[in-house]
Write a structure and sequence with these properties.
The chain contains ten helices and no strands. Helix 1 packs across helix 2, helix 1 runs antiparallel to helix 10 and helix 5 packs antiparallel against helix 10. It is mainly alpha-helical and about 325 residues long. The chain is about 80% helix and about 0% strand.
Length: about 325
Amino acid sequence: MTATEVRPARSAQQHQFIGLTAAFGIGMLFAIQSRLNGELGQRLGDGIPAALVSFGSGLVVLLAGCAVIPPIRRSVGRVWRTIRTPSDGGGLLRWWQCIGGLAGAFLVATQSITVSVIGVAVFIVAVVAGQAVSSLVVDRLGFGPAGRQAYTPLRIVGAVLATAAVVLAVSDRLHHPSGLLLALLPALGGVFTAVQQAINGRVAQTAAGDASGAIAAGVINFLVGFAALLVVFLVDLLVRGTPNSLPSNPWLYLGGMCGVIFISAAAAVVRVVGVFVLGLGTIAGQLIASLFIDLFVPASDQKVTLPVVAGTLLALVAVIVAAVPNLRKSA
C-alpha cells in the first residue's frame, strides 16, 4: 500500500473520531440546555412560554447571522428554491424534510415541563431510550444524508446496551410511577430527535456542503419550531392565563444559544457518522453531563444513585460498540 493510499484511510478514520467527539459535545450541550430550560419553566410556572423563549432567542441569533453573513443567506435561499421546484434540485429535498423543528419544539417543551420534576438525569435517560432505538431504524430506512445503513450485530448490540443503560439508570425509581409516566414525554421526544437529526442533515446537504449549510439547516429548524411553539403558546395563554414574570438571571436565557450550536453541529456531523452513531455519541455526552449537573446543580430533589452512574458507564460502552463498524469501514 502506498503513502497516498494510507493517507485517505487515516483521514476517514480521523473524520469518524472527530464526528464522534463532536457528537459527545452536542450531548453535553443538550444536557445543559435541559437544565436551563427546566429552571426557566419552573420560574415562569409554565413550560410552554419557557420553550418559546428558548427557541425565540436562538432564532434571533440565527437570523442575525443570516443577515450579516452572505453564504448563510445563499444557503437558505438554495433550500427554498429546491423545495419550491424539486425537479431543479434533483429530487434531493421535499418540504416535509424541512419540518424537523417540530421535533425540536416538542423536545424543548418537554424539557421545560418535566426536568424540574424528574431531574436532568432521568429526563436524559428517557430521551436516550427513544433515541437509541429510533436512530437505528432511521439509519436503516435511509432518512439521513449518509443513506441506508444495514442492521449489523454490533449496531444492534449497541442499541440494546444503550436501552439497558436507561433501564439500569432508572431502576431505583420504579416505585415512583407518576415520575416514570412523566418520563414518557422525553422518551417520545427522543424518538422524534433521531428523525430530526436525519432530515436536518438532508437540509444541510442541500443548502451547502460546508458550515454555512449546517447553519442554514439551523435557521429553518428554529423558524419551524418557533412558529409551532407560538401557536401552542397562544392556546396555552387562553387556557392557563399569563405566566409568571420573566426572571432576572441572565444565565437562564442561554438555552436557545445552546440549541443553535448543537442543532447546527448535528446537521453537519450526521453526514460523517450517520444518525445512529451520532445518536449514541450524544447519548454518552448527555448522560455524563446530566450526571454532573444533578450532582452539583440539581434541578429536583432526586439524588444521584449508583444505578444512574452504572447506566452512564454502560451507555459509554454502547457508543464504543456501535462505532466499531464505522471505524472499520473507514479503515
